[in-house]
């Protein structure tokens, strides 16, 4: 199986949207880890006066995490999957949160323009065809000194990290995906992580893209060495 990309991946997420929240809820720490990554942006004043972009918001789990860290901010949440956004729309949101259907390559066409004080991207970069191009778009949308937070499956580089991830996928993720009728998407999930940058590799990618003060922060529990927060600033 080759990795899914662009419209094909968005269509797979459309199909999975109805069961997606139920499946991720079975992942211990999923929402708590998103909130931890959002807090690591260290947004001041509870976000008062800030304009934030949640890039790849899915059904709104990352949006909720960002809102918990910055309850007074204006948040623009964007995703390429109409089905995932439809699920997000069924939830209650304050007036400062808006949702936009657009792939990252066509944000401007959808009316999403900068500047933003911060960008949060959860589980996005291993799913885009051109991560460097996406980082260039993100940097162009940020104010000078604006903050970037990335919450991503990026393996730590040890053999045990890859082994744990593969064992979890074979024992839990892939069977659950088959039961939900979304086997291709969850096979993509497994392979996209294995074939993506290591944590140190993605940090280097951020630095090459022009981000400063790049830090890599681990997650607790079984996701140690598997999921990381990456933070940096636009120059």
From TrEMBL:
Keyword field contains Methyltransferase? yes
Pfam families, A to Z: Ubie_methyltran (PF01209)
Q: Which UniProt keywords apply?
A: Methyltransferase, Transferase
The record's annotation in SUPFAM superfamilies points to: S-adenosyl-L-methionine-dependent methyltransferases (SSF53335)
GO molecular function terms here?
Answer: methyltransferase activity
Q: Would the keyword Cell inner membrane be found if you checked this record's keyword annotation?
A: no
> Which residue stretches, if any, does this entry annotate as coiled coil?
none
Q: EC number(s) for this protein?
A: 2.1.1.-
Name the source's superkingdom. Answer: Bacteria
Q: Which GO terms describe its biological process?
A: methylation
List the protein's name: Class I SAM-dependent methyltransferase
Q: Which organism is it from?
A: Streptomyces niveus (Streptomyces spheroides)
